[in-house]
Amino acid sequence: MSPIMRKSPVVLLRRPKKLPRKAIPRLTRRGSLRLQLLRRPSRNPAKSPVTRKTDHARALKIYDRLTAAYPDAKCALDFDTPLQLLVATILSAQSTDKTVNTVTPALFRKFHTAKQFADADLPELETLVHSTGFYRNKAKSIQGACRIIAEEHAGKVPQEMEQLLKLPGVARKTANVVLGVTFGKAEGVVVDTHVQRLAVRLDFTTESRPEKIEEDLMKLFPRDKWIQVSHLLIHHGRALCQARRPRCLECPIEDLCRSADKVLA
Ligand code: SF4
User: Fold this and answer.
1) What letter does residue 247 receive in the DSSP assignment?
2) Fewest Cβ atoms closer than 10 Å to its Cβ: which of 31, 80, 145, 261?
3) Residue nearest to atom 2 of ligand 1 (CA)
4) What's this model's pTM, rounded to 2 decimal places?
5) Whose CA is nearest to atom 3 of ligand 1?
């Protein structure tokens, strides 16, 4: 043994610069796990034409089972008009529908039209939406969106994705909610935090960004299911497939779920 190695045994553990890829997992447990994840073949049905047919069938089976389990699944926000839904959806960012529903009755009693929201006293608007969090930004977005609606759309919420996306505080999720729920227009799939989590657990996607997840869901489900599939996933996410401890023993799609997050004990 060389004197250097006797003095510093750490040298023996250092990874050689050009170690063959196959040898890396043996170095550490953490290294092994990481490589396993990196090498996991994509099971994204949209990107795997070989499995595409079976994954479509499985996705539709899941859709049917969830429909049977949650026949009344629908948007949980309270509203009467497209404008109210738009405002409520802007408020729902980083908040819960339940919290938003406690705020909107007073808000909608005070302001009825886009012009009234646009002309509102900003501090008053902020106070009214305070409990939904990020109230300054939300009040500003609501006022900005309503100003555009009042001035450029004759006070009516636009029915085109392109126009909706020009409104402050409106991204694809909000636009999809408004288009799907109030106008019955399937332009995309609503991807909120529940849909994001469940789409991954159910192997509908391997993506993490909402817009990419939405693309995968649009490829996986037929267009006439785009609106309802998000309601079903959101309901299932709230009822059983919660983030921390999913209630898999009660789950109606347990046999179709391949998630590593399953809790069966
Ligand atoms: S089996 Fe568990 S993880 Fe899979 S969908 Fe059902 S509740 Fe969610």
Assistant:
1) -
2) 80
3) 248
4) 0.80
5) 262
